[in-house]
Structure prediction request, 323 residues.
Amino acid sequence: MASAEYVSLSRTGDKMPLVGFGCWKISPEDAENTIYDAIKTGYRLIDGAADYGNEVEVGRGINKAIKDGLVKREELFVVTKLWNTYHNKANVRPSFDRQLQDLGLEYIDLYLIHFPVPLKNVEKSAAYPPGWYAPNGATAIEFERSPMHECWRELEKIAESGLAKNIGISNFNVQLILDLLTYANIKPAVLQIELHPYLQQTRLVEWVQSQGINITAYSSFGPASFIQLTEDGKSAQPLLEHEVIKSIAKKHGKTAGQVLLRWSLDRNVAVIPKSMHVERMQSNRDITSWSLDSEDHKQIKTIDRGLRFNNMDSYGFNLPLFA
Prediction:
């Protein structure tokens, strides 16, 4: 059974592709050509962030594709994210302006708050992107008193200006979303979260969608992106090699990666896989013309372990963000 290829976002009605291309862990040296190839392959949503350290090169890939006539700007849906060190109301707009300039674009389709973590500001002249630690040899993360309601209001101003067509959030839990909804003039259009069969978060997904907020899943392949980052990433059985996933893939004549991505689409959740290889880019996109059946979903449900890989505690930050 074929599925929709887009979801309509609240407030604007803009159509967000359900299958996008993620820019995390693409080196600046590879980013321009990789993004160009992704657009050439058919991807229309490009998901980036200041923290990825490759926005200049991602922008070059986007603009090259536009210049070469592969796509028109209005056919693309470009996503980027506000980093933690720029939550103060005085720093949100300057950070956004820097990102817009780095990307070489006139507007962004969706601007997200990357984490609900107000870190102490780091001047761009000192380090950009600054990461989690201040560039002064700090061994612990440092916070600042930058309330979320002030940060969100600055995102709303950017949305009202039209420079960001839509705004949203990433890595927020229900309590934070509930609080945000009490003061938001513009409701978040999207929540981006870690989501895969080891971390299914069914109640969170259902509740957020019931609020009219769309969901994008990152790390759809589970531990694959975290092998070099955390012990959990090293020790967990790769989802791409899990017997349940492999058996379902064989049943449908698909790859394990396609099954993992289709699992999210069947929940009306967008996905943003990344690959450096054109053949795999094509494979990852081929997930809208078929679907999993109820028995497949029943089997996948049994492998939920509540196993989160993008976990601040795993990085030694002493920040139980998802506790």
